Every structure is written in structure tokens, then in C-alpha cells.
Amino acid sequence: MSKQETKDKGITVKKEENMPEWYEQVLLKSEMAEHAPIKGCMVIRPGGYAIWQAIQDYFNPVMAKYGVKNAYFPMFIPESFFEREATHAKGFKAEVAWVEPKGEDKQRYAIRPTSETIMYDTFSHWIRSWRDLPLRINQWCNICRWEVQDCKLFLRSREFLWQEGHCVYETEPECEKEAQAMLMEYKKLCEEILAIPVIAGKKTEKEKFAGAKTTYTIETLMPDGKALQCGTSHNLGQGFAKAFNISFKSKDMKDELPWQSSWGISTRLIGATVMMHSDDKGLVLPPKVAAVQVVVVPILFEDSKEKVLKAAHKIVGDLTKEGIRVHLDDRTEYSPGWKFNEWEMKGIPLRIEIGPKDLEKNDCVVKRRDIAGYGKGGILTVNLVSLRKEIPKQLDALQHALFETAKKHLDSHTVHAKNWDEFVAAIKEKKWVKVYFYEDEALELAIKEKTAGVTSRCIPLGSTVPEGAPCFYSGKQATAEVIFARNY
Q1: Per-residue exposure over 363-397, b if at least 16 CB sit within 10 Å of its own CB, e if not
Q2: Distance between CA atoms of residues 45 and 47, nearest Å
Q3: What are phi and psi of 365, to 5 degrees?
Q4: Are 29 and 7 in contact (CB under 8 A)?
Q5: Is 364 in contact with 348 (CB distance < 8 Å)?
Q6: Does the first or last residue of the chain, that is N or C, have fewer Cβ atoms within 10 Å of its Cβ?
Q7: Does residue 367 register a pLDDT over 80?
Q8: Phi, psi at residue 76, to the nearest 5°?
Q9: 3-state secondary structure 265-280
Q10: Parallel, antiparallel, or unpaired for β 159-169 and 259-266?
Q11: Is 397 helix (H, G, I), strand (E, B) or coil?
């Protein structure tokens, strides 16, 4: 079977029956990404990168509100830098790829698994007094985590793209406030732009970022019952400042150590979006991140071709004036049915069909991508006069529907377990589980071992533990409500 024939065949497995294979087929056949010739790496195709570009276009103005400025730092980190903060170095030891010294170089260079060390050495030169604070810097860049062997497109690969913000403050309250503020901006991004409901929380001591004082996270639950971390924000405390000699003169001329935060999201969000919303026909994209929001497919016959094309071009022009991203598919070498299947595979939110019979009534047919099937499902007849007003409404409705469907799944697959048996039963049912837990790294390791991989995801912000409530696992007095799940 040729590559084109394979693509034409569509998705050959069902989402509910074999999600890993379904997910890969959706990404490959919708032309979002493909595997690179380098083991563990991927090629992000224009269709996939368009979502990353939409995320950048949305988030750059958000960061600007906080006074964050974009910059860029080298991808090579001197080994001596990397090892200044011991906990951080230990946490990333297994993931680092090294460039061996050559010529005049006397030490190895790490290919950045994260940029704290290379950025903070520079910060030590930039910061001299309280007047230089707060310092808020972000960079959009690539990251290398070499422990990955088999590439799971967008979810886990040796190289991926991300955004990492790094800020420096005079006081801990400032640092803590903005670390949590950025987490909530990530939550808004996921829910309002990607239509992915998330839970905002704090990581346990075992799961926090290496070298951080506190790690905050947003987590969601994929349709197969596995949790996915969608973004993190860290209060780094003063450890990195001490390790990299970052200090400032306070207003009373005393030498002080600043407080630091870092926060980031990655192209993993593309994978989350695809996995959450897509179906057995292929990709389903939220309108707010779709490079093409509407495709117009004219139904062409020789005796009416000119009139129908003229009407189709007018639709494109009218919708473009409304700020809608629209594409006209006027190819004649493919049948309308073939085009319908192609655009469904690529996840275009709305499809407009117009043929001679529609034109006689001054109508067109609008098909929503999120509602499966034909007939009445997702199909709306719209008068051409009202099309400019109707299409934005339909795009908004589709965006909202995707979020509500995902939220319903999250809510229905969230349970609270009082004991071990309830916990195990819920995990088997592909749910994530809230429990009252006595925070202890040894207990988390024991749970992970007994369940072949279940880990703590977060302590939901604002959650409380009833007085005297026992830990579901140890029986000790619980110290936090924690969500556990299998994860990607």
C-alpha cells in the first residue's frame, strides 16, 4: 500500500480500543508531525507548528502584562555551571547529553535540559542593586532530554520546544505571588484557548522540580485515564542565587540574596490538544488554535461552475473581513467527498459547502467538525446573507463544546478513595484518584511500586483535609489531599 493509499484509508484503529496507535495515526495522517531519522526525535510539520505559533501569539502579550521580556541564551552549558547547584545537577544527571571538549575547550558542555544555570550566571552580572529588580526574562527555545529512547510524538521526545520564564525578586512574597500567578495564566491558556480543563496544584516534595523550594503544576486527565502535566511554575527560593553569586544592594545598602522563580510550558500541549479532542475520523482542533478555522468547498459542475466559484470567493472575502481564517478548496482533481474526508482528517473546525442547488436558495451548508456523522449531526443550512454573523457563533459554540465535553470526562473520572482497595479499583477503571495522604517520599515510592507506575500528580490548590482524617495508605493522620494517577 502506497503512502497516499494509507492516508486515504483514514484512521484504522478506534480511539477507545488502541489509543497509542490511534494517536500516532492521527498525528501522521493529519500531517501534524512525523518521526525524525534521529532516534527519539520528531519533525513538527506546519500543521503542528501552527498550534505552537498560536500559543506563542497568545502568551507573549500575557507575559508582557507582567513586564516579562523575551531573550535568548546559549544551548551549551559548561559542566562547571551545571554542577553548582547540587540538587539540580543530581535531578537532571540521567537526562543530560554532553559535548566532549575539543581544541582549547577544557570542560564538557551540557546541551540544555533546562536553562537555569546558563541564565543565572548571566543574571549575576546584570543585577547589582534593588533598582535592577524585579528582573523578568523569558525565552522560547529547544530543550534536550537524552534519556528518551522511543519518541511519543509531542508527549515525550529527546528534543522539544518550550517557553521558560525566569524571574528574580527582592522578597519571597513577590516571588511566590508571581509564581502562582503564572500558573493561573497557564490554566487560562489551557482552558480558554486549547479547551483543556486542568487542575492547578502543588507538587509533593518527591515530585517537585530539582532545586526548587515549591513546584506548582497544572494537570489534566487524558481520555485513556492517564494524567498529563501541562505546565509548571516554581518558587526556586534562594538556592540558585547562592550557587551563582546573584546578590543585590538593598535600599539600606546591605548585601542581600534575591528570590527566584521559573515557569514553563512545552509542545506537549499540542499532544494534549490532539489526544483530548480528536476522534476516529482524525484530528479535531479548537477554533482558537486552528490555522484554518473554515474551509469552503464549492460543489462544481460545468454548467454552474462560474457562478458557484464566484459565490465561494465572496464567502471567503466576507469571512476574512470578520477576522476568520478561511481557505477555499477549489481543486478540480478531487471529488467533494475526498475533500470532505481530507479536511475532517486535518481537523478543520467548520466546513462550508456550496453548490448550484444551494445557490438557487441563496444558502450554503455548514458542517461542524466536532459532531460525528452526517444527516442532521452537525449540519446547518445557513442563508448567505447571515453567514458573516453565523460563522463566528458556530466557532464559539464549537470551542465551548470541546471544553465542556472534556470537562465532563474529567469530572466523571475523578473519584475520592478512602482506602487502598477503593484506590486500586479506581485506577483500574482509568480514573484519577483523590485521597487523604500522609506526605512521605517512601510511601509514594511504595505506592508506585505496588501499582506499577502510579504517581502523585498534585495537591489541588485550596484543598483541605478534615481534622483527624487518616491517610488512605498508611493510616497515619493525613497531611494533604493528593491526586494520584498513571501518567505520560
Answers
A1: bbbbbbbbeeeeeeebeeebebeebeebbeebbee
A2: 5
A3: -110, 130
A4: yes
A5: no
A6: N
A7: yes
A8: -100, 130
A9: EECHHHHHHHHHHCEC
A10: antiparallel
A11: helix
Written as one letter, the residue type at 106 is K
Q: Hey, which residues does 110 pair with through a beta bridge?
A: 77, 98
Cα–Cα distances in Å, from 484 out to 186, 221, 478? 21, 11, 15
3-class secondary structure, 207: coil
Dump pLDDT digits (tens) for 164-200: 999 999 999 999 999 999 999 999 999 999 999 999 9
In the block, residue with C-alpha cell 493561573: 184
Angle subtended at Cα 390 by Cα 388 and Cα 392, rounded to the nearest 5 degrees: 80
Q: What domains, with CATH codes, occur in the chain?
A: 10-277 (3.30.930.10), 294-393 (3.40.50.800), 416-487 (3.30.110.30)
Question: How many whole angstroms from its chain centre is CA 84?
Answer: 31
With residues binned 3-state (H G I as helix, E B as strand, rest as coil), the percentages for the chain, rounded to 5, are 40, 25, 35
In one-letter notation, the amino acid at residue 194 is: L
Query: For residues 146 and 111, what is the distance between their CA atoms, to the nearest angstrom?
Result: 9
Q: What is the DSSP letter of 222?
A: -
pLDDT band, residue 375 (cuts 50/70/90): very low
Is the model's pLDDT at 47 over the cut of 60?
A: yes
Q: Which of 84-88, 311-315, 317-321, 433-437 has the lowest mean pLDDT?
A: 84-88
